[in-house]
Amino acid sequence: MQGSSARWVLIHAIALAWLWLSISAVTRASHVMHTVNTVSTRVEQRYRTAYHFQPQKNWMNDPNAPMFYKGFYHFFYQYNPQGAVWGNIVWGHVVSKDLIHWHSLDPAIVPSEWYDIKGCWSGSATLLPGDKPAILYTGWANSSQQLQSMVVPKDATDPLLREWVKIPQNPLLIPEFGVNGSSFRDPTTGWLGHDGKWRILVGNKRDRRGVALLYKSKDFVHWVKAKHPLHSSKLTGMWECPDFYPVPLSGNEGLDTSATGPSLKHVLKVSLDDYKYEYYTVGTYLRDMDRYVPDNTSIDDENGLRYDYGKFYASKTFFDQNKQRRILWGWINESDSVSDDISKGWAGVQAIPRTIWLDSVTRSMLLQWPVSEVKALRRKKTLKQNMDLSSGSVVEIAGINAAQVDVEVSFDLPRLEMAEFENEVGVNSTAEQLCSRMGSAWKTVVGPFGLLVLASKDLNERTAVFFQIVRYRKELKLLMCSDQSRSSLLSDIDKTTYGTFVNHVGSFKEKSISLRVLVDHSIVESFGEGGKACITARAYPTLAISKDAHLYAFNNGTSTVTASKLIAWEMASSNDITLR
């Protein structure tokens, strides 16, 4: 970008105005598809969800560019309109008034130009001055080249944003010499720096070092790569779907992505392509240096904190200015085979959107909770109070459809002393390894106790979501597990058991432990201790289907645990709606 300062001032003054006034003349070429033979002849309903978002058929993966605009929540997603496996990727588009009931629109971005002809991959939305949305996305040009481009609404007065057009300056970001062009993707939401310039991140890697490349622009069209990345970490591999945003030190309100000040922290989340899970750090954004420094309480590698310790990937947050909150989306992949997906005609579900905020006690971790709007789907309920669960108890929670249910329960623990836990569990094992090895039937002093969901009457199929207190590295730890090992009689599916230690403050003496579980036919989303730990799992029962699914509270520990309050709500469906 050479030239006189006067010329640059002129360009800067008219760039955005020109972009919005003249773009209506730009038209897109025909949609080019790359056919793969994966078209299903039917859509199987057995494992389809009732109140999680998924398209009517075919493949879906990453959540893209969520935003609130002119009274509607917009959600875009990676979609294959031709089959139930990954490929032929376009941007699906749905809108909602409440984040729960969605109306489908035509695809927003489709391959049509040389720079995205093999697929339109993930990206993010930014609201520019004047409340004008712009979307940056990754175009797949060929096997060795990924490029960043932009689309804007054809008619910004349309609250549904039904048509999007590619700007003539595309592609905006091309990998320079020394940048791995085959791992150059997923631009973030932009934020304004102290100098008035926009900034974005693009995921990248150098050898096995994960990198968040930083780019700057005065007009959101012409971008210059910074001399150094915002952040990087060795041996973490490709950083997909980076997300960078501020969180206040107290309270659960969200902040605009450009917010700065002494009363906030920043979060950097990355999705690890090598591991197929994510981690995040909490730290400080040094604005003058354009560097991010994780706090010393954050592990900055594949062992770091996760939003979710189960099936949850390619996540994306956005600031909901409508209700002053930050909302998290995440993709729940399948655990069955590709042939199963083709047979059933669909693959991929989105997690229930979650409100996300900084834990004001520790200031080192995030808390998550399903958006309040999901409560509108609650119907008839079953209530149990002061239910003592002695050793070996299995108590059915009847009276509701247990295939689609929202359960909240508080467990009161017995008084505990360290001396009661004589044996240490594997000190060199991870929480997930402990959950997998111990399972829901291995007795300790306290636990396992929790819920059996999507269970058959004879318990030959069941998914166990439970807690257990263990002695680990000379401390008492609260272990949370989601055990899928008995979730189905099918043998050709992934039944990985997930687990994590729940961050615990204070003594376990006379402690109450809370659990919330959202069950939706083949989805189990679990939230421990008010959202300190979250685990999402898939289950494909053959017996515990629809009205034949059962729900139980259980305790296999040697000490009695009391379910002081358990409420299970049957959930209504939130099928695709027609806007009025």
Structure description:
With 580 residues, this protein is mainly β. Helix content is 6%, strand content 43%. It is globular.
How many β-strand runs? 35
End-to-end C-alpha gap = 48 Å
Determine the number of helices (DSSP H or I, runs of at least 4 residues). Answer: 3
Low-confidence stretches: 1-36
What structural class is derived from the secondary structure elements? mainly beta
Helix fraction, binned, reads under 10%
Task: Please outline the major beta sheet.
Answer: 6 strands, antiparallel
Averaged pLDDT, please?
Answer: 91
What descriptors fit this protein?
580 residues; 35 strands; disordered N terminus; 43% strand; globular; six-stranded antiparallel beta sheet; mainly beta; 6% helix
Brief overview:
The protein is mostly beta strands and 580 residues long. The chain has helices at residues 5-22, 338-344, 431-438, and strands spanning 58-69, 72-80, 90-96, 103-109, 120-128, 132-142, 145-153, 164-166, 191-192, 198-206, 209-217, 224-225, 231-233, 239-248, 264-272, 277-286, 291-294, 313-320, 325-332, 346-347, 349-350, 354-358, 366-370, 378-389, 393-396, 404-412, 446-455, 463-472, 475-483, 498-502, 512-520, 523-528, 533-538, 550-555, 561-571. Residues 1-36 have low confidence and may be disordered.
